[in-house]
Amino acid sequence: MRSRKLKSIKSEPLRIALPKCPTGIHGLDEITFGGLPAGRTTLVCGGAGCGKTLLGIEFLVRGATEFNEPGVCLSFEESAGELAANVASLGFDVDDLVARKKLAIDHVFLERSLIEETGEYDLEALFVRLGHAVDSIGAKRVLLDSIEALFAGLESESILRSELRRLFRWLKERNLTAIVTGERGQGALTRHGLEEYISDCVILLDHHMTETVLTRRLRVVKYRGSTHGTNDYPFLIDSEGISVLPVTSADLQHVASNERVSTGVAPLDAMFGGKGYYRGSSILVSGTAGTGKTSLAAHFVDAACARGEKCAFFSFEESANQIVRNMRSIGIDLQRWIDKGLLHFYSSRPTTFGLEMHLVKIHRILKEFEPVIVVVDPLTALLHSGTAIETMSTLLRLVDFLKEQHITALMTTLTSGSDAQEQTEINISSLVDAWLLLRDIESGGERNRGLYILKARGVAHSNQIREFLLTDHGIDLREVYLGDAGLLTGSARVTQEAKDAAGAMSARQEIERKQLLLARKRKALDAQVAALQLELETEEQESLQLVAQEELKLKQWDQARGEMARSRSVNAVIPKGNSGSARPQRGRK
Amino acid sequence: MTKSDRAGKPAAPKWELKLYVAGQTAKSLQAFSNLKHICEVHLDGEYHIEVIDLLKNPQLAKGDQILALPTLVRKLPAPVKKIIGDLSNTERVLVGLDLRSRNTKVGV
Is the link from the previous residue into A584 a cis peptide, with omega within 30 of 0? Predict the structure, then answer.
C-alpha cells in the first residue's frame, strides 16, 4: 500500500459549479438546493440529543441504498453494535448493509486513563484505519462521529489539532463527502472549535422547548459556494428517519384550477352555484362545538372516495375508529374506503409534538400517500402547541404547500361560543379560499344548526343562511324560510310553515267568496240593464205610435183643407182641365 | 509481517509487547530504539516485542484500537496498557508499563 504521509497539499481543481451530494434526507436536499458539497466535509453540530449521529447515519444509509455510494462510519462514541441497534428503530438495517459491503463501521475507542503519552506521536493509525475501511468497500461518503471525543482521549491538543487539519485535508483529497459531528460549545458552534477547520458547510441542529413540547430545528449556518435556506427549519425524527420541513416558496405561483369538486352535499353544491368547491382550493369550516364540522368533512371525503380519489384525513380529536363509527350514524360508511385503500386516517394527539412536528408529519404523509383531498380536523387542535406568530407562519406554510401540491383541503376550526363567529382563533381567513360557517341558532327552547357561506373566492354563492339537519342519511340543508318573521329553524320553522299554509288557505277562500259576490252583482246589474232596455223599448214604441198618430192627424187635416179648397173652387174656380181656355172662351164669347 | 526480537528464555516471556508503526519513519525508528533500551534496562530480558507495520497490515489497527502512532501495547502482563509517542520520556514509559507508580518517583 502506498504511503499516506501527505506532506504536500495538492492544488484543488477548479470547479465551475459546486457539485452536490444528495443526502436523501427528506427536506434537507431542498434547503441546501441539492445536498451537501460533494467531495468536501460538512460539520453537523448541536447539543446532546439533537440527532447529529442520526443525521450522519442516515446520510450514509441513504447514500448506500439510494445513490449507490457506500459509506464509512468512524464512530468515536458508540460501538458498531450499539449504532446498529440505535438506528434499527428508524428502519435502517445497518448489519445488512455491512454484510453487503455498502457500509463499514469502525468503532474508535480511546480511554485516556489507559494511555500514557510519551513524546512525539501522530494519528497516522486513524488515517490507516479510515483509509483501509474506505478502500475495502470503495466508499464515497464518510461519517466521523463525533471526532471531538479525541479531545477527551488525548492529552496533546496541539498534536490533535494539526492532525485534524490534516485529516480534513486528506478527506478532501480523496474526494470523500464527509460529515463530521461536533458538540455545541459555549458561544461557539462546537466545543473544540471544529468550525475552524471545516469551512465548506456547517449545519446546526438545535431544539426548542415551548411549554413542554419539544421542537427540533435545523439551520444551515454556512454553505460556501452555494445558496441555501437560512431559516430555522423544524425537523422530525421518527420511524423513517429525519424529515426536515422546508419553508415552501414565498412566491405565490400555484396554478389555479377551474375544475370543481362536489362538497358531497347536493344542496350545498347548489349554494356554490351547483358545482361545489374549486379543486386545489383551501376550505375552512368553522363553527362552535357540535355543529357538524366533522360530518361535513366526512361527506366531502365520502364523495371524493366515491369518485376514486385518494383522501387523507388528519384527525386530532378522535381516533379513526371513532370517526368511522360516528359517521355511520349519519349514514356514511367510511370503512369501505379505508378497506379499499382510498382513505387514510392519521390520528394523533395534538400534544404529541409541537405544531411544526405535526406539519412535518403531514408533509411526509402527503408526499408518500399523495392524496388529492386532505381533511384536517380540527386545525385548532394544533394551535395549542405554538405561539401565535409561529402558528400563523406554519399554517401559512401548510396551506401554501397544499396549494402547491394541488390538493383540495378542508380544514375545520372550532370557535368558542363567546367569540365572534366570524373570527377564527388564528385569523387564517385570508389564507383560505372558501369559508363555511356553521352556527347554532337558539330559539323557542331548542338549538338548531345553521350554515352559510362566509366567502368563496371566485364562486357565485348563495348569501342565505340555511338550516342544516343531520339525518340518518347524512346532512340535509333545508330551504331558507322566507317568511316575514325572519330566519326560522326547527320547530319554529315547522310552526311558521303551518301558519303560513293556514293563512294561504283562508286567503283562497276569501277570493272565492269575493268572486261569487261579484258574479251575483253582475247578474243583478244585468237584470237591471234588461229592465231598462225594456223600458226604453216601450217608450220608443209609444213615441213612434204617437208620431204616427200625429202624422195621420196632419194628413187628415191636410186632406180636409184640400177638400175645403176644392169645394170653394166650385163656385169660383175654373175646372182644372179647361182653366187655360176658359178665359179666351169667355173672351171669344 | 512482524519483526520479532526475542531476548531471554524460549518459554513464554513475562512481557508481551507490541509496537505499532506506519512505515520506517523517524518517529517509529526512534520509538523502537527507545523501547529496546528500556526493555534492556528494566525488563531483565523477559520480554517479547512484536513490531506491526500498519502500512502493511492496516486491518490490525482495529483490533487493538490503535489511533496514534507509534503505539506500544502491553499485552502481558494484564491488564492491557497503551503507551503512545516515541517513548522518549522514559519516566512516563515506566509509569505506563506499571513499572513505576504514577505518584512516587521511586524505582521498582
Answer: no
